[in-house]
Amino acid sequence: MSDVTETPVERRGVAVVREIMSGGSTRAILSVVAGFVIGAIFMVFSSEEFLAAAQYLTSRPTDALSAAWTAIAEGYSALFRGSIYNYKADDFVAAIRPMTETLRFAGPLIASGLGIALAFRVGLFNIGASGQLLFGALWATWISTRVSLPGGVHLVVAVLVAILGAAAYGAVVGFLKARTGAHEVIVTIMLNYIAAGILTFFFRTPELLREVDGGGTPKSDAPALTAQLPLLLGSEFTLHAGFILAIVGVFVYWWLMERSTLGFRFRMVGHNADAARTAGINVERTFVVAMAVSGAFVGLAAANQALGVQAGLTPDLDGSIGFDAITVALLGSSTAPGVLLAGLLFGAFKAGAPQMQVIGLSPEITGVVQGFIVLFIAAPPLVRAIFRLPPPQKTTVIADWWHKLTTKGDAK
Amino acid sequence: MKLELRGITKRFGSLVANDHINLVVNSGEIHALLGENGAGKSTLMNVLYGLYTADEGDILLDGVVQKFKGPGDAMAAGIGMVHQHFMLIPVFTVAENVVLGHEPTGILDTLDIDTARKRVREISDRFGFEIDPDALVEDLPVGSQQRVEIIKALARDAKVLVLDEPTAVLTPQETDELMGIMKGLAKAGTSIVFITHKLREVQAVADRITVIRLGAVVGEAKPTDSAATLATMMVGRAVDLSVSKKEPKRGETGLSVAGLTVIGDRNNKVVDDVSFEVHAGEVLAIAGVQGNGQTELAEALVGLRTPSAGSIHLGKMDITHSSVRDVIDAGVGYIPEDRSKDGLVGDFTIAENFMINRSYGPPFAKGLNIDFGNRERIASQLIGDYDVRTPSQVTLAKNLSGGNQQKVVVARELSRDLNLLIASQPTRGVDVGSIEFIHERIIATRDAGKPVVIVSTELDEVTSLADRIAVMYRGRIVGIVDAKTSRETLGRMMAGATV
Prior knowledge:
The complex is a heterodimer of chains A (412) and B (499). By secondary structure, chain A is mainly α. Chain A has 17 helices and no strands. Chain A is 70% helix and 0% strand. In chain A, helix 9 (242-259) packs antiparallel against helix 12 (283-307) and helix 14 (336-358) runs antiparallel to helix 15. In chain B, the strands form 5 sheets. In chain B, strands 6-7-8-3-9-10 form a 6-stranded mixed sheet, sandwiched between helices. In chain B, strands 16-19-20-13-21-22 form a 6-stranded mixed sheet, sandwiched between helices. Chain B has a 4-stranded antiparallel sheet with strand order 2-1-4-5, with helices on one face. Chain A: It is found in: Cell membrane.
């Protein structure tokens, strides 16, 4: 017997996810700060004033410094104007429009982020949000363009079909993993290609989903009015009920993971599949169910993309949501409030990028910031080194607080 | 070579694993380091071997202070270590394993295997190891593999040999042989540090004994001191290692296993045509050296492995092909041998761990929801009843000591309404106080009229708990004998002899 209690050798991937997830909110916030600092550096170097002042840096360094400061201030205030409140706008509606745009962009990010987060909690890397979204959107589009139903019912059916379609596509991953031992990362990546191909095929084939009087490009009809997600704030704003779906998703996710016995078993398998098996859990079946539920959350994003528009859809309707969802789940530590906040942040980046372009900054800077934030999240020692944090603690104040909040009153 | 440790202190955060430990091992002396699991023995040896750096204190060899930056330095200075888990490459020969890391080379950097072979034969002959340098390590019995480890250390001119729990994997006969080897080495001038928690072995082989508890040296003892004295020093209070129990009141057959065969991971019969019965109110112990099919047998009984032949009946119910969940629901309690891997979810709280095998219905579930009120109530009751020492029920299981972790598992399994208890290595890596407690609970389960199966490699545990003992060797039951059978007979059976 050794004196040190040996920890079981766990699957490496699971261990990595756990390390990434264990950082808690402190590291998430610091990663965001670090990401913004790097974004600032990019802004400084894309400022012509700064580059000019840098020519005579040694003689008058203050010029360069003030030019740098101006670049950063202008860049981030443009981001603020584009994503939260446009204080330069002429009227109130225009001033608060950016905020509603942020919410509109955040909706599908939150929903699909929840799906990825759920898979993470079960110890699975679901890289297939893109495929699940496309597959769900495909059938939602079928309902919304090829089926007539009365108002209200039509939308509900279309949303449910989006959820079921994405869930079924996720379940395939779990099934292949459970039955054949195929690794879910490979399977989900390949299924992304397959879904994109199927969707394009459907959108290109007149007998299937191609727009009725369309040309040769793959495109669908606009969803029927009865199947469109209704606008929330009237016709002045584009914010629609897709955001409500995401918020409902956040509450369902919270209930599932923190309150329900099903979520308890998901977490058990994620933490220690051997112990779960010994405790009578069918681990393989849990993989299938978890991937289906993961897909169902992505299905909310599919509904958002397929039914939140008034125009026809093209095969790239998923945008970059599939991969952004992974970053949202990682930044949000796979908790309900974390994913909500992370989705809002990345939604703000998407909404604010055009304003940055207006002042002559490359909108891709937000993508760089987003990438660095997740890089910092995924490389915990890096952030610890930058901010001179102590090595990982077993719990943090915020984790304790969160635990108390989620498990009512077992503090003893 | 004389080894001296002066005031070695090693801290991990707020935990003081070694607290100003002083230890002197004279040349040619067998010095036993006796302590419970978690007392800090392994930490101390890892400091000595250069794996950890001491926060305070010095290591002296023949009076010269040493600074080890890693095991390489320690080896170069003449310290050899035989780990509890062997560091051997199974598909290599003995000679190849011995020279691994400092291979003698010939022209063009080719491996000079003849020199290696000669060196192995030299050492083997000198100490009577009887090891063939050309044998593949995977073909050797465990006891011989251990000798290969010792040869490895000696081939690098180790003057101080550290043996970390060397007898854990050996049969009684192999243990005796190892002790002979230790004495021979000591006579030839090698200093030996013998880490163990087994009193009998210490008394048999040690020249001097240092007892450590909670990271500090409690004192020195002589091998002539009684086992009770040594045990008391180890745990800090008098402990009764024997279990007082009444004669069993046998009831009906609770578990009957017939012709059970299990095919293992390497496609061999790990459990081979095993049959036995356990009556209500009796303890059947499955004894044997680790790796003779006991683990697989226990796993087959609870549904974790599918038997290829034979049957398992719980009372009248056929559970041969039942799922784990059905077996659990049929009232089979199972204490797995590796609690951190199979018995607990380390990142779950104690309260959560109490419900891992009962998450589907009452009392822990209310519809689809976890019944937090019930869970809190049951958890605090079990923590009290089973004496789990923890700051709170929301403490993560991984932050508990081994003994308390095991109590969580025992509490979870015994607090259900059982028809059968299967306990695999129920006290492995558990402190003496908890061993006593867990043994009492197991006997109480028996006395409540339940059939109990214990799987244990600790002969002391087997003889003190069992009413009958089944000895397994290479997947077969060699014989089922009375619990009063002598250690010698059991030892012979564990080596494959039929009675």
